[in-house]
Design goal:
Length: 64
């Protein structure tokens, strides 16, 4: 994934979390796909994505 594409996807996910909290499961799914793709390509996963994943887990666990 090109850096510009990655940056755009992260921006989209952050905006979706803020503007559409009812869609957090979709955001979580897309984030996990992105992280899996990076790992499959042998790319390091930025700490900010790992932190975002943890925050989503926290938010979603509150909703259950």
């Amino acid at each position: 994934m090109a850096f510009d594409d990655l940056d755009a996807e992260i921006s989209y996910l952050m905006n979706a979390m803020e503007e559409q909290p009812e869609d957090l499961h979709e955001v979580e799914f897309r984030l996990r796909q992105m992280i899996s793709g990076m790992r499959a390509e042998g790319l390091p996963v930025p700490e900010s994505l790992i932190n975002l994943e943890a925050e989503l887990d926290r938010l979603l666990s509150k909703k259950r």
